[in-house]
Write a structure and sequence with these properties.
Layout (H helix, E strand, L loop, with lengths): L12 H8 L2 H15 L4 H11 L6 E5 L6 H12 L2 E3 L1 H5 L5 H13 L4 H12 L2 H6 L1 E4 L5 H9 L6 E6 L2 H9 L1 E3 L6 E3 L8 H6 L8 H18 L7 E5 L4 H12 L12 E5 L6 H12 L2 E4 H10 L3 H11 L6 H12 L2 H6 L1 E4 L5 H9 L6 E6 L2 H9 L1 E3 L6 E3 L8 H5 L9 H21 L4 E4 L4 H13 L8
Parallel strand pairs: 1-3, 1-4, 2-3, 4-7, 8-10, 8-11, 9-10, 11-14
Antiparallel strand pairs: 5-6, 12-13
Helix pairs in contact: 4-13, 7-9, 10-12, 14-23, 15-16, 15-17, 20-22
């Protein structure tokens, strides 16, 4: 993942600082803004841009056919993200704008607004302070490829584009039952979303253009135009089925707009996998190391290698192994620090598991400058762990490992001589599980950006979740 090719001796603090403060993304954003606006004084422009500090505000486009619920989804997103919703109606209603006044007159005569005028209205609205500071959501704009190209030419680039889709028969049925509250602008439906309050029911009105014939005409126009609009947004587009409960559509849209696009910044993964015994840490570490060329670091294995190499630390550790005692954290840290400082770990990255197990160990690791940039907690219920571990057996003759459910022995003869490791007894497993979860809350608090995963799934499903957390920036924390 690291784009460098030579063995450059870059202090680890430099990439850590760059990722923590988003330096690469900041420089990329400033360069984009300079090329778009071409200010006469680039330095002053960059200073003002940094003072605005609005690179992370929502910039969203919601598209979809008639009756797909795009206005409802856009309204809910705007309320949740505390941003501005821009619709054709709101643009025409701008009382202080001469452009809006001209557009209103044209709309009253033709029931439409020319693309050039509409795009200029959008540009004017986005230059206002509230859109600059809190972001924006465009509802149903752009409608055509021409509008999409004009918007892009002005440097208006959404970070997330949501396209809703549903069968035409569903959309026609939905449209016929649509009702609007003239006071609040809220949209209701006679079948799916009828308000319980009689006061609201009495003032609902039937919107224009919802007859079956008019809906079919609008659908045909949408299908004709959308095939030219969607290719304008590669990399930021997500299509969501609108043929499901509106709340489900909203949460899928919300999850998407809270994710960040994959960064082009050089990134050396330093991964920490935490989880109880039997959660699959070793398997996931092996898969990550194989796919991304990371150094797979198992703390227990490192200690065994140090003893086998008869190194100075190994000699100090050996008595603890012989007496089956816990190795002191100070000795573990020396072995771990020495390995993490080697060239392959520094430049290829690493995935560590088995350490830290508690808050004190996490602070020790942090104190010597080894800060993981991605931390994953694998949660697995006790019943699943007991099933995974207590049914493991080993053939003392061949050394082959079996599992009484997932990999049973081939013959009764083999089964008769199988042996269980004392560490896999139910008593030992429960003890280790209890020990982990007793310390996990403090560990999760220490690693505030950690991602918690359900480890009680197919291993490759878990791997995909972890992989997504590595290749994409961490999601925004939106309440």
């Amino acid at each position: 993942m690291d784009a460098t090719t030579g063995p450059h001796r870059i202090p680890p603090e430099m990439p850590q600082y760059g990722e923590r403060h988003h330096i690469f993304e900041m420089m990329q954003s400033m360069l984009e803004q300079l090329l778009i606006h071409q200010p006469t004084d680039p330095v002053q422009f960059m200073i003002e841009h940094l003072h605005r500090n609005n690179d992370g505000v929502p910039k969203i486009v919601v598209l979809g056919p008639p009756a797909s619920g795009k206005t409802t989804i856009a309204m809910w997103l705007a309320k949740h993200l505390k941003t501005n919703l821009l619709t054709l109606d709101s643009l025409l209603a701008m009382g202080h704008s001469e452009l809006a006044e001209g557009a209103r007159r044209h709309y009253e005569r033709k029931r439409s607004v020319p693309s050039v005028l509409l795009v200029r209205l959008v540009q004017e609205r986005l230059l206002e302070d509230d859109c600059i500071s809190r972001g924006w959501i465009l509802d149903g704009i752009p409608e055509t490829r021409e509008q999409a190209m004009m918007i892009q030419t002005l440097g208006i680039t959404p970070r997330h584009v949501i396209a809703l889709s549903a069968p035409d028969t569903v959309l026609i049925e939905r449209n016929l039952g649509k009702r609007i509250d003239p006071q609040t602008g809220e949209i209701y439906h006679t079948t799916f979303d009828w308000p319980p309050e009689p006061e609201i029911q009495n003032r609902l009105v039937v919107p224009e253009g919802i007859s079956e014939r008019e809906t079919v005409q609008r659908l045909l126009r949408h299908h004709r135009n959308i095939v030219g609009v969607l290719p304008s947004y590669p990399g930021v587009l997500k299509v969501i089925s609108a043929d499901q409960p509106c709340v489900d559509v909203f949460y899928q849209a919300l999850t998407y707009v809270q994710t960040n696009r994959r960064s082009n910044a050089p990134f050396t993964p330093k991964l920490l996998l935490c989880g109880p015994v039997g959660s699959g840490k070793s398997l996931q570490a092996g898969l990550l190391a194989q796919k991304y060329g990371l150094v797979n670091l198992c703390c227990g294995q490192l200690l065994k290698e140090a003893v086998a190499d008869n190194s100075r630390q190994g000699k100090a550790i050996q008595p603890f192994f012989e007496k089956e005692m816990t190795v002191p954290d100070s000795l573990i840290l020396k072995v771990l620090n020495q390995r993490l400082n080697q060239h392959d770990c520094v430049h290829r990255g690493w995935v560590l598991h088995g350490f830290p197990r508690d808050l004190d160990q996490a602070r020790l690791l942090d104190s010597v400058g080894h800060k993981p940039n991605r931390v994953f907690f694998l949660n697995v219920p006790l019943d699943s762990v007991i099933e995974r571990l207590t049914l493991r057996r080993t053939d003392p003759v061949t050394g082959e490992r079996y599992h009484l459910i997932y990999k049973p022995p081939p013959t009764m003869e083999v089964q008769a001589r199988l042996r269980q490791n004392p560490k896999d007894t139910e008593e030992q497993v429960k003890f280790k599980m209890d020990l982990f979860y007793r310390n996990s809350a403090e560990l999760e608090e220490f690693y505030k950006q950690a991602i918690t995963l359900n480890g009680d799934q197919d291993p490759y499903t878990v791997f995909e979740y972890i992989e997504s957390g590595i290749t994409h920036p961490l999601p925004q924390r939106v309440p």
